[in-house]
Amino acid sequence: MSEKRKKVADQYDRDYDYTKYWDNRDYEHAAEEIAIRRLLDGQRFAAAADIGGGFGRLSLLLREYADRVTLAEPSRTQLEAAAKLLEGTDIAQVQMQADDLKFEDGELDLITMVRVMHHLPAPADEFAEIARVLRPGGTAIIEVANLGHFKNRRKYKKLGQPLPTEPVSIRTAPVDEPDAIAFVNHNIDTVVGQLSEAGLQLSDKLSVSNLRSQTLKKYLPIGVMTTVEKLAQRPLAGRDFGPSIFLKLRRR
Length: 252
Known about the structure:
The protein is an alpha/beta fold. It has one domain (11-251): Vaccinia Virus protein VP39 (Rossmann fold), CATH 3.40.50.150. Helices cover 32% and strands 23% of the residues. It has helices spanning 18-21, 26-40, 59-63, 76-85, 124-133, 150-159, 188-197, 214-219, 222-232, and strands at residues 45-51, 66-73, 92-95, 108-113, 134-145, 168-169, 184-185, 200-208, 244-251. A 7-stranded mixed beta sheet has the order 3-2-1-4-5-9-8, with helices on both faces. The chain has a two-stranded antiparallel ribbon with strand order 6-7. Strand 1, helix 3 (59-63) and strand 2 (66-73) form a beta-alpha-beta unit. Helix 2 runs parallel beside helix 9 (222-232). The longest helix has 15 residues, at 26-40. The protein is globular and about 50 Å long.
């Protein structure tokens, strides 16, 4: 990779407390943990990295499956929050961007990147870096904000239009900075093709957060929602049903 940083990834340092985002999102967090546990069940890894892992909410889970875990996060304020959450653990916390990873070639055998792709309209550099630092045969789990979820497929069908193959912006707030953080949804088939070009071969996928709805969360206990989520993730994966798709990949 060029030493010149191509993308700015420090927007979460700009007076934004991402930990507050997870207030009242216990279901979404649980759904993501369910997916990772399912995709890693029975496996053990030597070295793992949680790429763009924020304040480390999933890093603790990775430590159950890997002997060494690094939280790789570009935001200084996120790392400050992670220091509190991960205090007393042996999880390393290092400031770095996904397009400029501070690992040696083939150093890792497990990588997760969750809730990062919706900030990456053009993820080729990030995919290349993941492939570089992952050993041949290593595993990557990449979560993708899904353009083709159930509601969108109905919308585009009603409009008589095909599902876009390129990322689509879902930003609702006006852009107030020249390098304001992107918010996009991706076509899953397009992303799988990009990953394959980088040397990362799809081996499994799950549809995640299938019950993401403020109305459902208002009336259904979280235990009911997570039970349904466990049952639904694999059957709905083939239809790319949910708003979040978890891709399990193998480094060729």
